[in-house]
Amino acid sequence: MNRNPLWKYVIIAAVIIPGFLYALPNLYGEDPGVHVAGVGSFTTDEDTLRQIERALAEQNTAPIRTTLDATGIQMRFADTETQLKAKDVVQAELGDDYTVALSLLPSTPNWLADLGGAPMYLGLDLRGGVHFLMEVDVEGAIKAAEERYVADLRSILRESKVRYLTIRRSAQGGIEIKFRDELQRDQGREEILDELSQLKLVDDEREGKPFIVASLREEAVEEIKSFALQQNMTSLRNRVDELGVAEPVVQQQGDRRIVVQLPGVQDTAKAKEILGRTATLEIKLVDEEHDLESAIRGSVPAGSRLYRHRNGSQILLKKPLIYSGHNIVDAAAGRDQLSGTAVVHITLDSRGAEINQRVTGENVGRRMAVVFVEERSETKLDEAGRPVVNDQGEVVKTRKRIEEVITAPVIREQLGKRFQIEGLDSSEEAQDLALLLRAGALATPIDIIEERTIGPSLGRDNINQGFRSVLIGFSLVLIFMLIYYRLFGVVACTALVLNLVLIVSVLSLLQATLTLPGVAGIVLTVGMAVDANVLIFERIREEIRNGNTPQASIHVGYDKAFGTILDANFTTLIAAIVLFSIGSGPVKGFAVTLSIGILTSMFTAIFGTRALINLMYGGRRVRKLAI
Predict the structure, then answer these.
(1) SS3 of 427, please?
(2) pLDDT tens digits, one per residue of 435-463
(3) What percent of the chain has pLDDT above 70?
(4) What is the mean pLDDT of the chain?
(5) Which of 212, 365, 391, 452 is 20 to 30 A (C-alpha) from 268?
(6) Where do the domains of the chain lie, and which CATH numbers do they carry?
Protein backbone atom coordinates (compact mmCIF):
# COMPACT_ATOMS: atom_id res chain seq x y z
CA MET A 1 0.00 0.00 0.00
CA ASN A 2 0.99 3.63 -0.59
CA ARG A 3 3.50 2.88 -3.32
CA ASN A 4 3.89 5.37 -6.19
CA PRO A 5 4.61 4.04 -9.67
CA LEU A 6 7.84 5.25 -11.25
CA TRP A 7 6.09 7.50 -13.76
CA LYS A 8 4.69 9.68 -10.97
CA TYR A 9 8.18 10.35 -9.60
CA VAL A 10 9.36 11.14 -13.13
CA ILE A 11 6.57 13.72 -13.54
CA ILE A 12 7.35 15.31 -10.15
CA ALA A 13 11.06 15.48 -11.02
CA ALA A 14 10.23 16.93 -14.45
CA VAL A 15 8.42 19.78 -12.69
CA ILE A 16 10.77 20.40 -9.75
CA ILE A 17 14.14 20.31 -11.56
CA PRO A 18 13.20 22.93 -14.23
CA GLY A 19 11.50 24.88 -11.45
CA PHE A 20 14.78 25.23 -9.55
CA LEU A 21 16.64 25.97 -12.79
CA TYR A 22 14.37 28.79 -13.95
CA ALA A 23 14.06 30.30 -10.46
CA LEU A 24 17.86 30.48 -10.23
CA PRO A 25 18.33 33.71 -12.31
CA ASN A 26 16.56 35.69 -9.60
CA LEU A 27 19.47 35.05 -7.21
CA TYR A 28 21.99 36.90 -9.38
CA GLY A 29 20.41 40.36 -9.09
CA GLU A 30 21.01 43.27 -11.46
CA ASP A 31 23.88 45.49 -12.52
CA PRO A 32 23.69 49.27 -13.03
CA GLY A 33 23.71 49.66 -16.80
CA VAL A 34 23.69 52.09 -19.71
CA HIS A 35 21.66 51.32 -22.85
CA VAL A 36 22.65 52.94 -26.17
CA ALA A 37 20.39 52.90 -29.25
CA GLY A 38 20.54 54.77 -32.55
CA VAL A 39 18.03 57.47 -33.51
CA GLY A 40 16.63 57.57 -37.06
CA SER A 41 19.22 56.41 -39.58
CA PHE A 42 21.96 56.02 -36.95
CA THR A 43 22.60 52.48 -35.77
CA THR A 44 24.79 50.79 -33.18
CA ASP A 45 27.48 48.53 -34.60
CA GLU A 46 31.00 47.36 -33.85
CA ASP A 47 32.46 50.76 -34.77
CA THR A 48 30.09 52.49 -32.34
CA LEU A 49 31.04 49.99 -29.64
CA ARG A 50 34.76 50.58 -30.14
CA GLN A 51 34.21 54.36 -30.09
CA ILE A 52 32.36 54.07 -26.77
CA GLU A 53 34.94 51.75 -25.22
CA ARG A 54 37.76 54.09 -26.23
CA ALA A 55 36.01 57.10 -24.67
CA LEU A 56 35.24 55.23 -21.45
CA ALA A 57 38.80 53.93 -21.15
CA GLU A 58 40.15 57.49 -21.37
CA GLN A 59 37.92 58.50 -18.43
CA ASN A 60 38.66 55.35 -16.38
CA THR A 61 35.00 54.24 -16.46
CA ALA A 62 35.34 50.92 -18.27
CA PRO A 63 32.30 48.62 -17.95
CA ILE A 64 32.56 45.17 -16.40
CA ARG A 65 30.72 43.66 -19.40
CA THR A 66 29.40 44.93 -22.74
CA THR A 67 26.98 43.31 -25.18
CA LEU A 68 25.79 44.33 -28.64
CA ASP A 69 22.50 43.03 -30.04
CA ALA A 70 19.57 44.13 -32.17
CA THR A 71 18.25 46.51 -29.49
CA GLY A 72 21.55 48.37 -29.11
CA ILE A 73 24.54 48.34 -26.78
CA GLN A 74 24.22 47.35 -23.11
CA MET A 75 27.05 48.19 -20.71
CA ARG A 76 27.21 46.96 -17.11
CA PHE A 77 29.06 48.77 -14.33
CA ALA A 78 30.17 47.91 -10.82
CA ASP A 79 28.22 50.71 -9.09
CA THR A 80 25.79 53.54 -9.78
CA GLU A 81 28.47 56.23 -9.44
CA THR A 82 30.45 54.75 -12.34
CA GLN A 83 27.20 54.23 -14.25
CA LEU A 84 26.25 57.93 -14.01
CA LYS A 85 29.72 59.08 -15.02
CA ALA A 86 29.80 56.65 -17.97
CA LYS A 87 26.41 57.86 -19.17
CA ASP A 88 27.68 61.46 -19.37
CA VAL A 89 30.85 60.33 -21.17
CA VAL A 90 28.91 58.28 -23.77
CA GLN A 91 26.36 61.04 -24.36
CA ALA A 92 29.12 63.61 -24.91
CA GLU A 93 30.93 61.24 -27.28
CA LEU A 94 27.92 60.24 -29.42
CA GLY A 95 25.85 63.44 -29.31
CA ASP A 96 22.12 63.62 -30.02
CA ASP A 97 22.23 60.98 -32.75
CA TYR A 98 21.94 58.22 -30.15
CA THR A 99 19.69 57.50 -27.19
CA VAL A 100 21.74 56.98 -24.01
CA ALA A 101 19.59 55.80 -21.08
CA LEU A 102 20.28 54.52 -17.58
CA SER A 103 18.85 51.10 -16.80
CA LEU A 104 19.25 48.04 -14.61
CA LEU A 105 20.44 44.92 -16.45
CA PRO A 106 20.08 41.34 -15.15
CA SER A 107 23.39 39.66 -14.33
CA THR A 108 22.25 36.16 -15.31
CA PRO A 109 25.18 33.93 -16.37
CA ASN A 110 25.47 33.23 -20.08
CA TRP A 111 24.94 29.47 -19.71
CA LEU A 112 21.67 30.06 -17.88
CA ALA A 113 20.54 32.74 -20.31
CA ASP A 114 21.21 30.33 -23.21
CA LEU A 115 18.70 27.94 -21.63
CA GLY A 116 16.08 30.69 -21.60
CA GLY A 117 16.54 31.58 -17.95
CA ALA A 118 15.74 35.18 -17.00
CA PRO A 119 14.70 36.86 -13.77
CA MET A 120 11.12 37.96 -13.29
CA TYR A 121 10.43 41.63 -13.85
CA LEU A 122 10.11 43.88 -10.82
CA GLY A 123 7.52 46.64 -10.75
CA LEU A 124 8.20 50.32 -10.25
CA ASP A 125 7.67 50.05 -6.49
CA LEU A 126 10.37 47.37 -6.18
CA ARG A 127 12.88 48.31 -8.85
CA GLY A 128 12.67 52.08 -9.02
CA GLY A 129 12.19 54.00 -12.25
CA VAL A 130 10.09 56.84 -13.64
CA HIS A 131 6.35 57.47 -13.56
CA PHE A 132 4.58 59.82 -15.98
CA LEU A 133 1.01 61.04 -16.05
CA MET A 134 0.28 62.33 -19.56
CA GLU A 135 -2.67 64.30 -20.86
CA VAL A 136 -3.77 63.83 -24.46
CA ASP A 137 -4.65 66.99 -26.40
CA VAL A 138 -8.09 65.77 -27.47
CA GLU A 139 -9.06 69.29 -28.57
CA GLY A 140 -6.08 69.20 -30.92
CA ALA A 141 -7.34 65.89 -32.34
CA ILE A 142 -10.75 67.44 -33.00
CA LYS A 143 -9.13 70.48 -34.62
CA ALA A 144 -7.02 68.23 -36.88
CA ALA A 145 -10.13 66.26 -37.84
CA GLU A 146 -11.97 69.44 -38.76
CA GLU A 147 -9.04 70.57 -40.91
CA ARG A 148 -9.17 67.25 -42.75
CA TYR A 149 -12.89 67.72 -43.31
CA VAL A 150 -12.17 71.14 -44.85
CA ALA A 151 -10.13 69.42 -47.57
CA ASP A 152 -12.78 66.72 -47.99
CA LEU A 153 -15.55 69.31 -48.36
CA ARG A 154 -13.61 71.15 -51.07
CA SER A 155 -13.19 67.91 -53.01
CA ILE A 156 -16.84 66.91 -52.65
CA LEU A 157 -18.21 70.26 -53.79
CA ARG A 158 -15.76 70.49 -56.70
CA GLU A 159 -16.55 66.99 -57.91
CA SER A 160 -20.32 67.67 -57.74
CA LYS A 161 -19.77 71.08 -59.45
CA VAL A 162 -21.40 73.04 -56.63
CA ARG A 163 -20.12 76.62 -56.58
CA TYR A 164 -18.98 78.00 -53.26
CA LEU A 165 -17.05 81.10 -52.25
CA THR A 166 -14.98 80.00 -49.24
CA ILE A 167 -14.54 77.01 -46.95
CA ARG A 168 -12.64 77.56 -43.72
CA ARG A 169 -12.44 76.31 -40.19
CA SER A 170 -13.77 78.76 -37.61
CA ALA A 171 -11.51 79.81 -34.73
CA GLN A 172 -14.32 78.85 -32.34
CA GLY A 173 -14.63 75.39 -33.89
CA GLY A 174 -16.69 74.06 -36.75
CA ILE A 175 -16.43 74.65 -40.50
CA GLU A 176 -17.99 77.61 -42.33
CA ILE A 177 -18.99 77.22 -46.01
CA LYS A 178 -19.98 80.38 -47.88
CA PHE A 179 -22.10 79.99 -51.07
CA ARG A 180 -23.07 82.29 -53.92
CA ASP A 181 -26.81 81.77 -53.49
CA GLU A 182 -29.36 79.61 -51.70
CA LEU A 183 -29.74 77.21 -54.63
CA GLN A 184 -26.03 76.33 -54.49
CA ARG A 185 -26.31 75.99 -50.71
CA ASP A 186 -29.21 73.53 -50.99
CA GLN A 187 -27.32 71.45 -53.58
CA GLY A 188 -24.19 71.54 -51.46
CA ARG A 189 -26.08 70.37 -48.36
CA GLU A 190 -27.41 67.32 -50.21
CA GLU A 191 -23.96 66.37 -51.53
CA ILE A 192 -22.32 66.80 -48.12
CA LEU A 193 -24.93 64.75 -46.29
CA ASP A 194 -24.57 61.94 -48.84
CA GLU A 195 -20.78 61.78 -48.40
CA LEU A 196 -20.11 62.86 -44.80
CA SER A 197 -22.75 61.62 -42.39
CA GLN A 198 -20.48 62.49 -39.43
CA LEU A 199 -21.20 66.20 -39.91
CA LYS A 200 -24.15 68.16 -38.56
CA LEU A 201 -25.19 71.03 -40.88
CA VAL A 202 -26.90 74.29 -39.87
CA ASP A 203 -27.97 77.06 -42.31
CA ASP A 204 -26.94 80.64 -41.60
CA GLU A 205 -27.05 84.08 -43.22
CA ARG A 206 -24.16 86.56 -42.97
CA GLU A 207 -23.50 89.75 -44.89
CA GLY A 208 -26.31 88.88 -47.29
CA LYS A 209 -24.71 85.54 -48.25
CA PRO A 210 -25.97 82.03 -47.43
CA PHE A 211 -23.71 79.90 -45.18
CA ILE A 212 -23.61 76.35 -43.94
CA VAL A 213 -21.97 75.83 -40.55
CA ALA A 214 -20.76 72.20 -40.31
CA SER A 215 -19.84 70.65 -36.99
CA LEU A 216 -18.96 67.14 -35.87
CA ARG A 217 -21.76 65.08 -34.39
CA GLU A 218 -21.39 64.09 -30.74
CA GLU A 219 -20.76 60.42 -31.56
CA ALA A 220 -18.07 61.43 -34.08
CA VAL A 221 -16.37 63.63 -31.46
CA GLU A 222 -16.34 60.77 -28.95
CA GLU A 223 -14.94 58.42 -31.59
CA ILE A 224 -12.13 60.88 -32.41
CA LYS A 225 -11.28 61.28 -28.70
CA SER A 226 -11.26 57.52 -28.14
CA PHE A 227 -9.12 56.91 -31.23
CA ALA A 228 -6.62 59.61 -30.21
CA LEU A 229 -6.26 58.06 -26.75
CA GLN A 230 -5.91 54.47 -27.97
CA GLN A 231 -3.53 55.40 -30.81
CA ASN A 232 -1.32 57.33 -28.40
CA MET A 233 -1.24 54.39 -26.01
CA THR A 234 -0.17 52.08 -28.84
CA SER A 235 2.47 54.58 -29.93
CA LEU A 236 3.87 54.96 -26.42
CA ARG A 237 4.19 51.18 -26.01
CA ASN A 238 6.33 51.07 -29.15
CA ARG A 239 8.45 54.04 -28.14
CA VAL A 240 9.54 52.69 -24.78
CA ASP A 241 11.41 50.00 -26.73
CA GLU A 242 13.98 52.72 -27.51
CA LEU A 243 14.69 52.98 -23.78
CA GLY A 244 15.39 49.26 -23.43
CA VAL A 245 12.67 48.95 -20.79
CA ALA A 246 11.40 45.50 -19.86
CA GLU A 247 7.69 45.20 -19.04
CA PRO A 248 6.63 48.88 -19.08
CA VAL A 249 3.18 49.87 -17.85
CA VAL A 250 1.00 51.95 -20.20
CA GLN A 251 -2.54 52.38 -18.88
CA GLN A 252 -5.50 54.64 -19.56
CA GLN A 253 -6.66 56.90 -16.73
CA GLY A 254 -9.94 58.70 -17.30
CA ASP A 255 -11.01 59.89 -20.75
CA ARG A 256 -7.87 61.84 -21.69
CA ARG A 257 -4.96 60.74 -19.52
CA ILE A 258 -2.36 57.97 -19.82
CA VAL A 259 -0.11 56.56 -17.09
CA VAL A 260 3.35 55.38 -18.19
CA GLN A 261 5.66 53.56 -15.77
CA LEU A 262 9.19 52.62 -16.80
CA PRO A 263 10.81 50.33 -14.21
CA GLY A 264 14.59 50.53 -14.04
CA VAL A 265 14.90 53.81 -15.98
CA GLN A 266 16.42 56.69 -14.01
CA ASP A 267 16.95 59.10 -16.92
CA THR A 268 13.76 61.16 -16.76
CA ALA A 269 14.87 63.73 -19.35
CA LYS A 270 15.59 61.15 -22.05
CA ALA A 271 12.35 59.30 -21.34
CA LYS A 272 10.38 62.56 -21.66
CA GLU A 273 12.10 63.40 -24.93
CA ILE A 274 11.24 60.07 -26.54
CA LEU A 275 7.72 59.65 -25.17
CA GLY A 276 6.57 63.18 -25.95
CA ARG A 277 7.60 63.13 -29.59
CA THR A 278 4.75 63.31 -32.12
CA ALA A 279 5.23 62.89 -35.86
CA THR A 280 3.37 62.11 -39.06
CA LEU A 281 3.59 62.54 -42.83
CA GLU A 282 1.98 65.12 -45.10
CA ILE A 283 1.73 64.72 -48.86
CA LYS A 284 1.83 67.95 -50.93
CA LEU A 285 2.46 68.96 -54.54
CA VAL A 286 5.66 70.78 -55.49
CA ASP A 287 5.08 74.31 -56.82
CA GLU A 288 6.83 74.21 -60.17
CA GLU A 289 4.99 77.21 -61.68
CA HIS A 290 6.91 79.78 -59.65
CA ASP A 291 10.63 80.50 -59.42
CA LEU A 292 12.32 78.87 -56.43
CA GLU A 293 15.14 81.43 -56.26
CA SER A 294 12.65 84.30 -56.03
CA ALA A 295 10.84 82.51 -53.23
CA ILE A 296 14.12 82.00 -51.33
CA ARG A 297 14.85 85.75 -51.68
CA GLY A 298 11.50 86.51 -50.04
CA SER A 299 8.93 86.58 -52.84
CA VAL A 300 6.95 83.51 -51.78
CA PRO A 301 3.80 83.27 -53.93
CA ALA A 302 0.37 83.10 -52.29
CA GLY A 303 -0.78 79.52 -51.79
CA SER A 304 2.78 78.17 -51.54
CA ARG A 305 5.43 77.85 -48.86
CA LEU A 306 9.14 77.11 -48.55
CA TYR A 307 10.22 73.90 -46.85
CA ARG A 308 13.60 72.53 -45.86
CA HIS A 309 14.71 69.39 -47.73
CA ARG A 310 16.64 66.81 -45.74
CA ASN A 311 19.64 67.27 -48.08
CA GLY A 312 19.97 70.85 -46.79
CA SER A 313 18.35 72.65 -49.74
CA GLN A 314 14.97 74.38 -49.86
CA ILE A 315 11.92 73.43 -51.87
CA LEU A 316 8.70 75.28 -52.71
CA LEU A 317 5.48 73.35 -51.99
CA LYS A 318 1.82 74.19 -52.43
CA LYS A 319 -0.03 74.72 -49.16
CA PRO A 320 -3.10 72.48 -49.74
CA LEU A 321 -2.71 69.13 -48.03
CA ILE A 322 -3.45 66.15 -50.29
CA TYR A 323 -3.57 63.62 -47.44
CA SER A 324 -1.63 62.85 -44.28
CA GLY A 325 -0.36 59.99 -42.15
CA HIS A 326 -3.85 59.60 -40.70
CA ASN A 327 -4.85 57.97 -44.02
CA ILE A 328 -2.06 55.36 -43.74
CA VAL A 329 -3.26 51.96 -42.50
CA ASP A 330 -0.02 50.00 -42.96
CA ALA A 331 3.66 50.62 -43.64
CA ALA A 332 6.50 48.15 -44.23
CA ALA A 333 10.20 48.66 -44.91
CA GLY A 334 11.70 47.10 -48.03
CA ARG A 335 13.97 47.67 -51.03
CA ASP A 336 13.23 48.99 -54.49
CA GLN A 337 13.39 46.17 -57.05
CA LEU A 338 15.23 48.27 -59.63
CA SER A 339 17.64 50.43 -57.66
CA GLY A 340 17.98 48.30 -54.52
CA THR A 341 17.64 51.39 -52.29
CA ALA A 342 15.67 51.42 -49.06
CA VAL A 343 11.96 52.28 -49.39
CA VAL A 344 8.81 52.18 -47.27
CA HIS A 345 5.75 50.51 -48.79
CA ILE A 346 2.59 52.43 -47.86
CA THR A 347 -1.02 51.22 -47.81
CA LEU A 348 -3.76 53.86 -47.64
CA ASP A 349 -7.32 53.68 -46.40
CA SER A 350 -10.19 53.98 -48.87
CA ARG A 351 -10.43 57.77 -48.56
CA GLY A 352 -6.67 58.25 -48.96
CA ALA A 353 -6.58 55.85 -51.93
CA GLU A 354 -9.35 57.77 -53.66
CA ILE A 355 -7.56 61.10 -53.16
CA ASN A 356 -4.20 59.65 -54.18
CA GLN A 357 -5.63 58.16 -57.37
CA ARG A 358 -7.34 61.40 -58.38
CA VAL A 359 -4.42 63.76 -57.58
CA THR A 360 -1.67 61.63 -59.13
CA GLY A 361 -3.81 60.97 -62.21
CA GLU A 362 -4.22 64.70 -62.75
CA ASN A 363 -0.54 65.50 -62.12
CA VAL A 364 1.48 62.86 -64.02
CA GLY A 365 4.90 64.34 -64.81
CA ARG A 366 4.85 66.71 -61.85
CA ARG A 367 6.54 66.27 -58.47
CA MET A 368 4.84 65.28 -55.22
CA ALA A 369 6.60 65.79 -51.89
CA VAL A 370 6.51 63.67 -48.71
CA VAL A 371 6.87 65.96 -45.67
CA PHE A 372 7.90 64.56 -42.29
CA VAL A 373 6.21 66.65 -39.56
CA GLU A 374 7.14 66.49 -35.88
CA GLU A 375 5.68 68.48 -32.98
CA ARG A 376 7.51 68.93 -29.69
CA SER A 377 6.31 70.43 -26.43
CA GLU A 378 8.81 72.87 -24.91
CA THR A 379 8.83 75.09 -21.83
CA LYS A 380 8.26 78.78 -22.63
CA LEU A 381 11.11 80.97 -21.35
CA ASP A 382 11.21 84.68 -20.59
CA GLU A 383 13.97 87.09 -21.64
CA ALA A 384 16.11 85.99 -18.70
CA GLY A 385 15.80 82.34 -19.71
CA ARG A 386 13.49 81.42 -16.83
CA PRO A 387 10.33 79.32 -17.26
CA VAL A 388 7.13 81.33 -17.71
CA VAL A 389 4.43 80.53 -15.12
CA ASN A 390 0.70 81.29 -15.54
CA ASP A 391 -1.75 82.56 -12.90
CA GLN A 392 -2.36 79.01 -11.61
CA GLY A 393 1.36 78.50 -10.99
CA GLU A 394 1.74 76.08 -13.89
CA VAL A 395 4.68 76.21 -16.29
CA VAL A 396 3.57 77.44 -19.72
CA LYS A 397 4.25 75.04 -22.59
CA THR A 398 4.70 75.92 -26.26
CA ARG A 399 4.51 73.74 -29.38
CA LYS A 400 7.47 73.58 -31.73
CA ARG A 401 6.70 72.26 -35.21
CA ILE A 402 9.53 70.71 -37.22
CA GLU A 403 8.93 70.01 -40.92
CA GLU A 404 11.32 68.32 -43.34
CA VAL A 405 10.82 67.06 -46.89
CA ILE A 406 11.98 63.44 -47.11
CA THR A 407 11.60 63.06 -50.87
CA ALA A 408 9.91 64.79 -53.80
CA PRO A 409 9.81 62.32 -56.72
CA VAL A 410 8.20 62.82 -60.12
CA ILE A 411 4.76 61.21 -60.52
CA ARG A 412 5.36 58.75 -63.36
CA GLU A 413 1.93 57.10 -63.32
CA GLN A 414 -1.38 57.19 -61.54
CA LEU A 415 -1.09 55.77 -58.02
CA GLY A 416 -3.75 54.06 -55.94
CA LYS A 417 -4.03 52.39 -52.58
CA ARG A 418 -0.39 51.29 -52.45
CA PHE A 419 2.80 53.14 -53.27
CA GLN A 420 6.32 53.52 -51.89
CA ILE A 421 8.38 56.31 -50.30
CA GLU A 422 11.91 56.66 -51.66
CA GLY A 423 14.83 58.91 -50.78
CA LEU A 424 15.72 57.18 -47.49
CA ASP A 425 19.35 56.90 -46.40
CA SER A 426 19.36 53.33 -45.09
CA SER A 427 17.25 50.28 -44.41
CA GLU A 428 17.34 51.13 -40.68
CA GLU A 429 15.77 54.51 -41.37
CA ALA A 430 13.13 52.82 -43.51
CA GLN A 431 12.32 50.43 -40.65
CA ASP A 432 12.09 53.30 -38.15
CA LEU A 433 9.80 55.30 -40.44
CA ALA A 434 7.61 52.26 -41.11
CA LEU A 435 7.28 51.63 -37.38
CA LEU A 436 6.45 55.28 -36.75
CA LEU A 437 3.75 55.25 -39.43
CA ARG A 438 2.23 51.96 -38.29
CA ALA A 439 1.95 52.75 -34.62
CA GLY A 440 4.66 55.19 -33.62
CA ALA A 441 2.99 58.43 -34.62
CA LEU A 442 0.98 60.07 -31.90
CA ALA A 443 -2.52 60.87 -33.07
CA THR A 444 -2.30 64.19 -31.21
CA PRO A 445 0.32 65.82 -28.95
CA ILE A 446 0.56 64.90 -25.27
CA ASP A 447 1.66 66.93 -22.26
CA ILE A 448 3.42 65.41 -19.26
CA ILE A 449 1.50 66.89 -16.32
CA GLU A 450 3.10 64.81 -13.56
CA GLU A 451 6.39 62.96 -13.26
CA ARG A 452 7.98 61.06 -10.41
CA THR A 453 11.33 59.35 -10.12
CA ILE A 454 11.53 56.42 -7.72
CA GLY A 455 15.16 55.79 -6.81
CA PRO A 456 16.68 52.30 -6.78
CA SER A 457 17.47 52.69 -3.06
CA LEU A 458 13.74 52.96 -2.26
CA GLY A 459 13.14 49.97 -4.52
CA ARG A 460 15.75 47.98 -2.61
CA ASP A 461 14.09 48.92 0.69
CA ASN A 462 10.76 47.66 -0.63
CA ILE A 463 12.38 44.44 -1.82
CA ASN A 464 13.99 43.92 1.59
CA GLN A 465 10.71 44.57 3.40
CA GLY A 466 8.82 42.26 1.05
CA PHE A 467 11.44 39.54 1.44
CA ARG A 468 11.35 40.00 5.22
CA SER A 469 7.55 39.64 5.28
CA VAL A 470 7.72 36.43 3.25
CA LEU A 471 10.53 35.10 5.45
CA ILE A 472 8.73 35.88 8.72
CA GLY A 473 5.44 34.37 7.55
CA PHE A 474 7.25 31.34 6.13
CA SER A 475 9.29 30.81 9.32
CA LEU A 476 6.27 31.01 11.63
CA VAL A 477 4.41 28.45 9.53
CA LEU A 478 7.46 26.14 9.53
CA ILE A 479 7.84 26.34 13.29
CA PHE A 480 4.16 25.56 13.86
CA MET A 481 4.19 22.60 11.44
CA LEU A 482 7.40 21.12 12.88
CA ILE A 483 6.14 21.33 16.47
CA TYR A 484 2.60 20.16 15.81
CA TYR A 485 3.11 17.48 13.14
CA ARG A 486 6.76 16.43 13.72
CA LEU A 487 8.03 14.32 10.78
CA PHE A 488 4.94 15.07 8.73
CA GLY A 489 5.62 18.73 9.49
CA VAL A 490 9.05 18.36 7.88
CA VAL A 491 7.34 17.03 4.77
CA ALA A 492 4.92 19.98 4.77
CA CYS A 493 7.83 22.44 5.15
CA THR A 494 9.62 20.83 2.22
CA ALA A 495 6.47 21.26 0.13
CA LEU A 496 6.31 24.95 1.14
CA VAL A 497 9.88 25.52 -0.02
CA LEU A 498 9.11 23.80 -3.34
CA ASN A 499 5.96 25.89 -3.66
CA LEU A 500 7.89 29.16 -3.30
CA VAL A 501 10.46 27.97 -5.83
CA LEU A 502 7.77 27.04 -8.34
CA ILE A 503 5.98 30.40 -7.91
CA VAL A 504 9.20 32.29 -8.64
CA SER A 505 9.97 29.95 -11.55
CA VAL A 506 6.55 30.46 -13.17
CA LEU A 507 6.78 34.24 -12.73
CA SER A 508 10.21 34.15 -14.40
CA LEU A 509 9.07 31.94 -17.29
CA LEU A 510 6.02 34.13 -17.95
CA GLN A 511 8.18 37.25 -17.53
CA ALA A 512 5.45 38.57 -15.25
CA THR A 513 5.95 41.71 -13.17
CA LEU A 514 6.26 41.33 -9.40
CA THR A 515 4.99 44.30 -7.37
CA LEU A 516 4.44 44.89 -3.65
CA PRO A 517 0.82 43.66 -3.92
CA GLY A 518 2.25 40.59 -5.67
CA VAL A 519 4.50 39.98 -2.66
CA ALA A 520 1.35 40.15 -0.49
CA GLY A 521 -0.17 37.49 -2.73
CA ILE A 522 2.85 35.24 -2.13
CA VAL A 523 2.59 35.70 1.65
CA LEU A 524 -1.10 34.76 1.49
CA THR A 525 -0.24 31.73 -0.67
CA VAL A 526 2.21 30.48 1.98
CA GLY A 527 -0.60 30.42 4.54
CA MET A 528 -3.07 28.86 2.13
CA ALA A 529 -0.60 26.22 0.91
CA VAL A 530 -0.18 24.75 4.36
CA ASP A 531 -3.99 24.53 4.81
CA ALA A 532 -4.11 21.56 2.45
CA ASN A 533 -1.52 19.69 4.51
CA VAL A 534 -3.37 20.49 7.73
CA LEU A 535 -6.57 19.00 6.28
CA ILE A 536 -4.73 15.87 5.14
CA PHE A 537 -2.78 15.37 8.37
CA GLU A 538 -5.83 15.90 10.59
CA ARG A 539 -7.74 13.35 8.53
CA ILE A 540 -4.88 10.86 8.97
CA ARG A 541 -4.95 11.47 12.75
CA GLU A 542 -8.70 10.89 12.79
CA GLU A 543 -8.36 7.58 10.95
CA ILE A 544 -5.68 6.44 13.41
CA ARG A 545 -7.94 7.36 16.36
CA ASN A 546 -10.69 5.31 14.72
CA GLY A 547 -8.43 2.25 14.82
CA ASN A 548 -7.20 2.09 11.22
CA THR A 549 -3.69 0.93 10.45
CA PRO A 550 -1.06 3.59 9.68
CA GLN A 551 -0.91 2.62 6.00
CA ALA A 552 -4.70 2.70 5.63
CA SER A 553 -4.86 6.00 7.49
CA ILE A 554 -2.40 7.61 5.07
CA HIS A 555 -4.32 6.27 2.09
CA VAL A 556 -7.75 7.36 3.37
CA GLY A 557 -6.39 10.71 4.61
CA TYR A 558 -5.21 11.78 1.18
CA ASP A 559 -8.19 10.36 -0.72
CA LYS A 560 -10.89 11.82 1.54
CA ALA A 561 -9.27 15.27 1.90
CA PHE A 562 -8.69 15.71 -1.83
CA GLY A 563 -12.27 16.80 -2.63
CA THR A 564 -12.33 19.40 0.16
CA ILE A 565 -8.96 20.81 -0.86
CA LEU A 566 -9.98 20.99 -4.52
CA ASP A 567 -13.23 22.83 -3.73
CA ALA A 568 -11.53 25.35 -1.43
CA ASN A 569 -8.74 26.16 -3.89
CA PHE A 570 -11.08 26.27 -6.88
CA THR A 571 -13.33 28.88 -5.26
CA THR A 572 -10.28 30.98 -4.30
CA LEU A 573 -9.00 30.69 -7.87
CA ILE A 574 -12.33 32.00 -9.18
CA ALA A 575 -12.02 35.03 -6.88
CA ALA A 576 -8.45 35.64 -8.10
CA ILE A 577 -9.57 35.48 -11.75
CA VAL A 578 -12.35 38.00 -11.06
CA LEU A 579 -9.84 40.32 -9.35
CA PHE A 580 -7.54 40.08 -12.36
CA SER A 581 -10.39 40.74 -14.80
CA ILE A 582 -11.83 43.88 -13.22
CA GLY A 583 -8.98 45.16 -11.05
CA SER A 584 -6.39 47.85 -11.74
CA GLY A 585 -2.59 47.42 -11.82
CA PRO A 586 -1.87 46.70 -8.11
CA VAL A 587 -4.91 44.41 -7.81
CA LYS A 588 -3.85 42.52 -10.95
CA GLY A 589 -0.38 41.98 -9.44
CA PHE A 590 -1.95 40.48 -6.32
CA ALA A 591 -4.28 38.29 -8.39
CA VAL A 592 -1.47 36.94 -10.60
CA THR A 593 0.72 35.69 -7.74
CA LEU A 594 -2.31 34.36 -5.87
CA SER A 595 -3.50 32.38 -8.92
CA ILE A 596 -0.06 30.94 -9.59
CA GLY A 597 0.37 30.12 -5.90
CA ILE A 598 -2.94 28.23 -5.77
CA LEU A 599 -1.98 26.02 -8.72
CA THR A 600 1.56 25.30 -7.47
CA SER A 601 0.37 24.64 -3.90
CA MET A 602 -2.13 22.07 -5.20
CA PHE A 603 0.75 20.25 -6.84
CA THR A 604 3.22 20.42 -3.93
CA ALA A 605 0.77 19.96 -1.04
CA ILE A 606 -1.02 16.93 -2.52
CA PHE A 607 1.23 15.18 -5.02
CA GLY A 608 4.57 16.36 -3.62
CA THR A 609 3.94 15.51 0.02
CA ARG A 610 2.31 12.18 -0.82
CA ALA A 611 5.34 11.19 -2.88
CA LEU A 612 7.66 11.99 0.06
CA ILE A 613 5.49 10.16 2.59
CA ASN A 614 5.18 7.15 0.30
CA LEU A 615 8.98 7.07 0.00
CA MET A 616 9.29 7.02 3.81
CA TYR A 617 6.38 4.72 4.73
CA GLY A 618 5.11 3.01 1.59
CA GLY A 619 5.52 -0.71 0.96
CA ARG A 620 6.53 -1.71 4.49
CA ARG A 621 4.93 -2.60 7.82
CA VAL A 622 4.54 0.52 10.02
CA ARG A 623 3.50 0.39 13.66
CA LYS A 624 3.31 4.13 14.37
CA LEU A 625 3.32 7.40 12.43
CA ALA A 626 5.34 10.45 13.53
CA ILE A 627 2.34 12.72 13.28
Answers:
(1) helix
(2) 566 544 566 777 777 777 776 556 667 67
(3) 88
(4) 81
(5) 391
(6) 6-24+455-617 (1.20.1640.10), 30-106 (3.30.70.260), 139-220 (3.30.1360), 278-441 (3.30.1360.200)
